[in-house]
Amino acid sequence: MKGRLLVVMAMFGLLMPACSGGGDEGCTEDPANGQFCLTFWHGYTDYEKDWLNTALDEWNAENPKIHIDPLYVNNDSALQKLTVALQGGEPPDITYQYGSSLAEVADAPGLVDLSDWVNQPNVNWDDFIPGARSAATFEGKVLGVPALVDNLAIVYNKTLFDDAGLDYPSPDWTWDDLRAAAKALTDPAAKQFGFAYPMDASEDSVWHWDPLLWQNGGSILNEDNTQAAFNSPEGVEALQVFTGMAVEDQSVFLDIQNSAYTNVFNSGRIAMLETGPWDLPSFPDVDYGVEILPGFDGDHQTIAGPDMWCVFDNGNGREQAALKFLQWLTSAEQIKKEALATGHLPIRLSVAEHRAFLKNFADAWPGVDVFAENLTNVEQARPVLAAYPSVSTAMGNAIVSAMLGETDAKSALDQAAAEANDALAAGG
Amino acid sequence: MSAASQDAGTVTPFRRFLVSDHLSGWAFILPAVILIVVFGILPIVWGLILSFQKAGLISPDREWVGFDNYARIASDPKARQAAINTITYTALFVPISILAALFVAHALNRKIAFIRFYRLAVFIPVVTSTIATGIMFLWLFDKHFGLANWLLGKAGLGPFGFFEDPNQAMLALVVMTVWGWLGFDTIIYLAALQGVPQQLLEAASIDGASRWTSFWRITWPMLGPATLLLVVWSTISALQLFDEVFFVTKGGPVGRTSVVVFYVYKLAFEQGLGSLSLAGYAAAIAYVLFLVILVLTLAQFWLGRRVIHYAS
To answer: Cα–Cα distance between A87 and A82 in angstroms, integer?
Structure first.
């Protein structure tokens, strides 16, 4: 009997380590003495992570009382992971979230309202890019600190243009010019495409089309966000640019995976992409150039995808400690270091307009200066509503359906508008 | 039993329990029981409660709405599409995988060189992660750069869209999942085939039965229990398809491979966060699926009992 009891106890003993909560090896929380160990969720990889580690080492060394404990969370699932953490009652102190998730995160218990904090002089709120500020604001409340700002422009393969004897894209191109160039650079026999497009019907499929909608005078929703407006004649015309290219000219690489296009472009088989600065490091084998988007009637406005840091109140003064850290992380000095190390666009105007910095920036990351200057072309933002994911799904399905040739542009957008209106009526 | 012998008086039931087999038995299975209750039963009960509420997974607000969520399913075209896609997938997957497994098991049921390697090879796709399989098939079936179209092109067959073509995506999904799970069905059938008594088959061939007659009259009825197991198992798995859809097709293109569990995920974790609060609705759909699977399984068992011959 003793032997049997021993075995049973040994089994429980083996289970114990599995049950104990994980803790940061080097940090013991002691709020009474001002010692904090903050959980920090980020989605940085490769060289981005190298920059983050350097920055965190610097902060942790100078601020031993506020120790930052980083955890990698893939940005695409950051919202879902936050959901799980909230259900368990243990949200992180700081988390990176997509700007498009703001309407969902807004309801989270414990999310800190930063509206007062941003008025502090050392935060210098007005120095942040306007698009980043508005993307972090929901129903008048500031709910995030800008973390990343980017925009869409055209990245093109200079070699393919040279071989075909065509002129590079220019700042005053129209979408017809792009369509003609794409057609000329498409060669089915050599499996070469003039253009590429994300076709997984996700938000990617939508926000790559939004600039055309806006340039042509259309808008996603009406003034008070109660009805879809993207199926206007302007919207149909804007979508027909892409459907013409995909269905009639067959000049578009339709990327169903939404990840294959980087490899295909890097192997020299796509002439032009509509993408952002984050993709530039994936094209080491291509002599690429960057140009602002083509326009309708001289309107070359683009779209930005700002992301933010959200802060959760876990009590005991952790919120203040987290904000202290974020204010340092988003200060002009750190922004400069981040931009030079990662190719991320600077999220502060003072840095983005600094000539000497821009020169160093462009030297370190070829083509990124065009993206930085393109920030001035960001005029509008996508609506921030709880119903937006449903609107996005409807639009994404419409765009993919039309570009596959399953439906024509007008019917696809009309159907999407009906679905979007249902979702808008239902809530959010 | 030192405790009992030291005590000159009575041995209480509690003492008897402490030294009995019961305690150690329970102690051994307790970890598994805890896991099953926490990860199995609690979510099932919570899901039922959730299906009667309008609730989201971020906001703690909850509102009882009775059977509204269930009623909503009937008028939701996306739910209908998901149901049709799931039924189509199941109707294709189950018969194809079982028949294919039968052929392969028959082929593997012989003593030839390298038979162990062949059997292992057939089972490897089953233990490969669905993500790895998904990545492989995405590239294999790529319309422009995939091996499949390259080989088919050599045979003169035009490039197929596979996952990109709304009309082919479901079939491509069936091919991928049949490949992935064939090994499991094959192993079951192989074991069952080896349980068919050789004397019966020899006696039949002496009496002049053809190979087809032997199979149809002797082997096939004896495979009855295995077939029932595989039909029930495959149906249950097929109706709950998620991994491959989530990773490979994401319900597309244009919703043609959106299956019920994938739709539930989208509602609860993507569209229904925030104030739209669709997690309750998603739970209701999940419960309807549960009921359908339950009814279907019972029907299959009932039919099986009437039709199958169990060897004594």
So the answer is: 9
Q: Are residues B87 and B45 in the same domain?
A: no
Domain assignment of residue B254, given as a range: 71-307
Residue of chain B with shortest Cα separation from A202:
B250
Q: How close, in Å, is residue B71 to chain A by CA atoms?
A: 15
Q: DSSP per residue over A173-219, as a string?
A: -BHHHHHHHHHHT-BGGGTBBSEEEE-S-SHHHHHTTHHHHHHTT--
- Mark whether B40 and B75 lie in a shared domain: no
Residue B62 lies in a domain: no
Q: Quick check: is B202 in a domain?
A: yes
**pLDDT tens digits, one per residue of B261-283:** 999 999 998 888 877 788 999 99
- List the single residue in B252, B254, B274 with the smallest CB-CB distance to A107: B274
Q: Which of B248, B253, B246, B292 is nearest to B268 (CA)?
A: B246
Measured between CA atoms, the residue of chain B closest to residue A260 is B139
Interface of A with B (CB under 8 A): 1, 4-5, 8, 11-12, 15, 79-80, 82-83, 86-87, 103-109, 191, 199-202, 253-254, 256-257, 260, 264, 386-387, 389-390, 393, 397, 400-401, 404, 406, 423, 426-428
Model confidence band, residue A418 (pLDDT cutoffs 50, 70, 90): very high
- What global pTM score does this model have? 0.86
Pick from B253, B273, B276: CB nearest A404? B253
Residues of chain A with Cβ-Cβ distance to B1 below 8 Å are 1
Cβ separation A11–B31 shorter than 8 A: yes
Q: What are A386-398's pLDDT values in tens digits?
A: 889 899 999 999 9
The pLDDT-based confidence of B1 (bands split at 50, 70, 90) is very low
For tokens 């001002």, what's the residue?
A34
Rounded Cα–Cα distance for residues B136 and B144 (Å)? 15
Do B123 and B177 lie in a common domain? yes
Q: Tell me if B18 is assigned to some domain.
A: yes
A46-62 and A318-329 helices cross at what angle (nearest 10)? 120
Of residues B144, B254, B274, nearest to A397 (C-beta): B254
B64 within some domain: no
ipTM value: 0.83
Query: How far is the alpha carbon of A97 from chain B, nearest alpha carbon, in Å?
Result: 14
Residues B42 and B78 both lie in one domain: no
From B85's Cα to the closest Cα of chain A, the distance in A is 17
Q: Which domains does chain A have, with CATH numbers?
A: 35-143+307-377 (3.40.190.10), 153-304+381-426 (3.40.190.10)
**Test the A interface: residue of B6, B254, B257 with most A CBs within 10 Å:** B254
pLDDT for B69-84, tens place per residue? 999 999 999 999 999 9
Read off φ and ψ for residue A193, nearest 5 degrees: -120, 150
Mutate to test the interface with A, among B58, B61, B78 (most CBs of A within 10 A): B58
Do residues B76 and B204 both lie within one domain?
yes
Q: Look at chain B and report how many structural domains it folds into.
A: 2
Residue A413 to residue A80: CA distance in whole angstroms: 29
